[in-house]
Amino acid sequence: MPTLHILPPEVGRLTQLEKLDLCSNPLQTLPAEVGHCTNVKHLALSHCQLRTLPFEVWKLTQLEWLDLSDIPLQTLPAEIGQHTKVRHLNLSHCELYTFPPEVGRLTQLEQLDLGSNPLQTLPVEVGQLTSVRHLDLSNCDLHTLPPEVGKLTQLEWMDLRSNPLQTLPVEVGQLTSVRHLDLSNCDLHKLPPEVGKLTQLEWMDLRSNPLQRLPAEVGQLTNVNHLDLSRCQLRKLPPEVWKLTQLEWLDLSGNPLQTLPAEFGQLTNVKHLNLANCQLHTLPPEVGRLTQLEWLELRSNPLQTLPTEVGHLTNVKYLNLSHCQLHILPPEVGRLTQLEKLDLCSNPLQTLPAEVGHCTNVKHLALSHCQLRTLPFEVWKLTQLEWLDLSDIPLQTLPAEIGQHTKVKHLNLSHCELYTFPPEVGKLTQLEQLDLGSNPLQTLPVEVGQLTSVRHLDLSNCDLHTLPPEVGKLTQLEWMDLKSNPLQTLPVEVGQLTSVRHLDLSNCDLHKLPPEVGKLTQLEWMDLRSNPLHALPAEVGQLTNVKHLDLSRCQLRTLPPEVERLTKLYWLGLSDNPLQTLPAEVGQLTNVNHLDLSRCQLRKLPPEVWKLTQLEWMDLSGNPLQTLPAEVGQLTNVKHLNLANCQLRTLPHEMGKLTQLEWLDLNSNPLQALPVEVGQLTKVSHLYVYGDPLIKPPVEVCSQGISGIRQYFDELERSEENVSARLKVVVLGEKMAGKTSLVQTLRRGVSSLTEEEDRTHCVEITQWTPDDNITFEVYDFGGHDVYHLTHQFFLTQDAFYLLLVNLETYSCTEQRYTEAVGFWLDTVNARVPGAVVSLVGSKKDRCRSYDVIREDIQRRIELQKEMWERQRIARLTSIQASQQTGSSELMEDISQQLAHIDYLSRQRLRIVGNLLCVSVKPESWFGRFFSRSPSWVSLRNLLLETANNKTLFPTLRRVLPKTWVLFQQLLKVSMDTETESSDEEGSDDKSLSSGETSSHGRTKQPARYWLTLTEFKRIGRLAELSVERLEPVLSYLQQVGTILRYTDIPELKELVFHDPPALIEFFKNLFHHSTKAIFETPRLQSANYTRVQLSGFEKDLCDCGLIRKDVLTCMLPPNISPDIVTALMQHFGLCFELKVSDKTDPAQHTVLYKIPWYLHKQTPGELMSVWQEHLPEEQEQLQLMCDIRGFCPRGLFQRFSVGIHHLVKDRIDWKDGLMAYRQDYPILVCSKPVADDTYITMATRGRLPQAGEMWGVVHPLLEVLIQLLQEWPGVLYSLHVTCAHCIKARLDNPHQYDLRDRTADDGRDVRCPRVKHTASTSADIVYRPSRLSVVTSRTSLTQMRPSQQNDYYKMTSDPRGLALIISNINFTDPSRNRPGGEKDLDRLRKICEKLKLQQKIREDLTAQEIEAAANDVSRRDHSSYDCFVLFLLTHGDVAGVLGTDGQHVSAENIVSSFQACQSLVGKPKIFFIQACRGVDRDPGQEHTDTTGTLDEGRSTPQAGREASDGATETTKSPPPPTSAPAASAASLESPDAGERTLPTASDRLVMYATVHEQLTWLFIV
């Protein structure tokens, strides 16, 4: 449709113009001549791009209707006051921060819309608009209303919703004409008594306000018929509320109401009453007086009984009592003879009264998750039943009388205890959906064949060994689930199910498929994974409509050639099969988009595979492939390619043709070089080469991504290749082991002993070049515990670890071995599995029994290795047990865990040689006389020999551009020059501080801890590297550790630490093993602090881990900014910042830093007053636990404590725990050693209905811990949820459930094994909402992927999802027919096909059938889908949508039913509702389009209405996106806390054709 960017000046000649509509044009300005159109009465400029309006617009003084909505106006000029004739003014959805006082002149104004503007105040002149009848101020930023608003005495409709209003002016009581008042979603803590004067009020919405009470005067609103008080904080209501006898619609849901008074029974006209999610323990008997009641919602209340008077509610049609605590149902319920829907789900009912059989009009009966072992005979008399849910109740048998329910269309018996199914079920000939999943059924009766209307049949997770042949009579069947049954064969009659589109036979025991399966020609989705199938019948080739075929984890050695006929196949899974070859015919599957051949036995692939040019996702990992052919370059559409764990030694140059590739995994291949063409893969954002011995380019270059690789090869082309050999040597060991002496001896080539004052603090790094071939970078680590916080950042792959053992102090005991050897081996094994380690015994000259020590250490090392192996096998066994019992939805996570264990089995610590004993003590004259080599020389030789071992260090020598090597050499020269200069200038006076004058009169230069980027550019020019070519070499040097950069820290982004020891130097004075020494720093001693103050500072650090910023500053060199140091400390997770306001001047504050490492105090006693030992009865505790098996890294809990600081507030810390708040929920975090393990727990408390919020509160803390553990790939850990029942019962050793996502197969409750299944816990606090599982599963170590936050919903399933289309065209009243609906339906079919949505179309449904259809689909298993879409096309009004019988269905109830579907949790649910929502008619704007038609055969569009005149509409519903932005953790965060929750209404988009209470606009065909 054409759009106007400019309006010609000539428009000003249209002097007779009365109506001008310019809506929805990209106009950024209007010509001044528009002011000549002085007769214009109607001007519409909405949805343009006008930021200002020309002065002449305000001269249009005849204007009566002005629409400026949805344009980016930020101000209105005073001239708006000239439009004194305006009756309708729409300024909604602009950017107005103020409203000019001159608006008060618009005294004729009747309708004013200012909604959705950032208005914070209104001018007092608004009170002059005395003719206004309709005022919309919704979604603004109004904190108060001016008292003058009370002068709007003609006002009838007022909308103030979603404003931060905390109070209303008393003058609001003057608005005596108001009939409609919306104050929802404000911040009102109270209502003024004057609200009682609004005696004409009929409709009032106060929901979602923090109201704790209502004024008594509310009882004067005697005309109110609609009152919404839901989601407030009302604990009781004033007695006067019950005087509102005209009320027909009352919503009190979500309030902490514990009782209702007897006066409640005075509301005798109420028809709709919502009391859901309150805290009602009882209902008053007077509820029986509400005889007009038709709709009663009582779900999620702790009701244990109902009064007998409930039987007086004889007009009730809808009654929801689900999720209460009802143990019995009164017999009087049988008097509710008009009842059509009765929901009793999730109640501890053990029986039903016989009188329930009197409710003969009930069509919908839900009894799921009750405790009914039998049903009364009378239940089977409810012959009108169409929908019956008996799932998750302990029924062991069904009586023959079930056959009397001949009208039932939906029957859910899943998760019961049925061993048999009665033959009489065959009488249910109207049945369309039958769910028998998760029952111990061993057989089905032959009468099941009489259910010829069944379209959906779920028999999953039963114990069926065979199917009766009669199942073949179910010719209408479209969806059949038989997964997880011990079926060994299928009857040949299965071939008669010719309508089946979805067939799940996974996890059965099928050894073969009958040839008749080939007759299922409508089949589109077939799952056969995890069956012992050795071959497929040739007839499988007849399934020509199959799009999704999963054959993974079978025992297939080949595929039949007939597979070539499956030309519509889109998704093919063949992983984990012993396939050694593929038939050439696989090349005919040209539509395949997803192909999984991982972990097969393929040594090569047939050439035809490379013809699958539509492939986007291909997994070949875990195959013994040694080469790829050049034809791989034909897969030009591939986006995801996994080649990990193969045996590839080279890649073909044609890889560069895969230009659409986004994800490439080459992990664990013996690749030493990549082809230069890899640089052409510009779209690759995820490249993995971990475990590859790459030297050209080095792995560190590959870590920079494709651009880094391309720049590397470009630089090689510009300069020569240079082979560089560097090895990092890390020297570890406990304090006083002689590490520094040994390092200095190796570096200098002569024996050197280190004085006490020169011991290493933290880490010191030196370079040693014993010959011209290899440069050793030697890291000397301080041995005291406090330094372990900094050690871990320097433990990396491809380093050689020397572990020094002090022979003088070693004794052959378990404790000394652990201190001197075991701890260090645990640390290295946990941080860098597969590392190369050599043990060196120091101070040999002081020990005569070193041979005994060598044998003891060797023996204990073997025992330690055995312990590691036992722990690994125990974890493997645990994971495999989960694999046996886990559902298909959990397999991906389990597979990652298994891959990690497999990785650890291959990456074992490599200890070179036995203990080498040396001494660095200078030789005596006797030794020198006989020219005996010092013992440390043997260590020098060991280092050189080990470094040259290509098996241990295959990437020691790497190919680099000559310019890069030159740059590194120049940088080294620069550093050496600075060091020598500093040494010379300061050698005479060591006590001088930086910048002081020495005794020679020269100024001592300050130490350079960093260089600026400008200085690096200067060095780059010397190496002939231009500025744009400098970044790759800096990135490389950063990766190998030569330099350090922190571009994500504002204080450091312009600095480059060219000497890493300089950075560590910052921490020496802060992380000293002696806190006394810390406070003896010369600068601190000379500062203006008293001795008492210094003593207090030291006590604060020891007791509370706190240090003031000004004190910390005095501990640093004078030329170092404390902001830089604290930024580094927070980056490393060593501390967090606190600001304490000054008590005398709140504007002033003191900055402190908390270093948890120094905390020593135990659990504070005051904790018990906040976190009671006895859990309150009305609360539940959600506790997540990380069980770290064996070794737990030093400082892990302290870094975790720092990492969660931004998520919590009001924290109290102690040595092994902290108490804090998050989203107003208390949180308790603790670390506790148990035997050889460490338990880290995170717990919160709340009411069971708040379980979703509780998960959102505590789960982000776990994510922080998991991120830290990712840095320790060798640590074995498991994640659990502690049984809430065990916690409440205070049982020792409470049961720990494995932390996993909730699936469609999970019931409401989980029985506790700790008490032999005699008690249960709600599944809501056992199973995690699947949306929260993004980052908690351990990254596969074979891939070493960085943690990624999902920005998009996964959209890879085929079909993408299920689309339910409900289209009502022919109504009982022919005048309501919608003949244009056929065209909508045709379009929707095409859209669904294009978007790969499986369609389920239902036409011309009554209200009850609409609800049943929605409930039917909402209770299906959507596990194989990635989304759900509903298209609902019908008539409607304010009460809901209409069925063909003219009856209403609540659109919100339809939407909510899908929100409860567990298999759709975390997946997008999109609803398009094409229906009127009321009877009001939007005046609209006239619009003429003469440029063409919208569709073939369509006439000029004009406005019409859908409700009654029979007009037809043709609607183009926007299709759901194939990749929609996800509501991830970030999008749910508060600005300062990063808090993540999963709201009840998450992951859903509801789109209506019109706004509330209005008719739809449509096109007449």
Automatic annotation (TrEMBL):
The keyword Protease applies. One of its GO terms (biological process) is proteolysis. Residues 977-1003, 1481-1541 are annotated as: Disordered. Residues 1524-1535 have a biased composition (Low complexity). Keywords: Hydrolase, Leucine-rich repeat, Nucleotide-binding, Protease, Repeat, Thiol protease, Zymogen. The keyword Repeat applies. GO terms for cellular component: cytoplasm. Residues 977-987 have a biased composition (Acidic residues). One of its GO terms (molecular function) is nucleotide binding. Signal peptide: none annotated. Residues 720-901 form the Roc domain. Residues 1359-1480 form the Caspase family p20 domain. It comes from the Eukaryota. Belongs to the peptidase C14A family. This is Leucine-rich repeat protein SHOC-2. It comes from Branchiostoma floridae (Florida lancelet). The gene is LOC118430859.
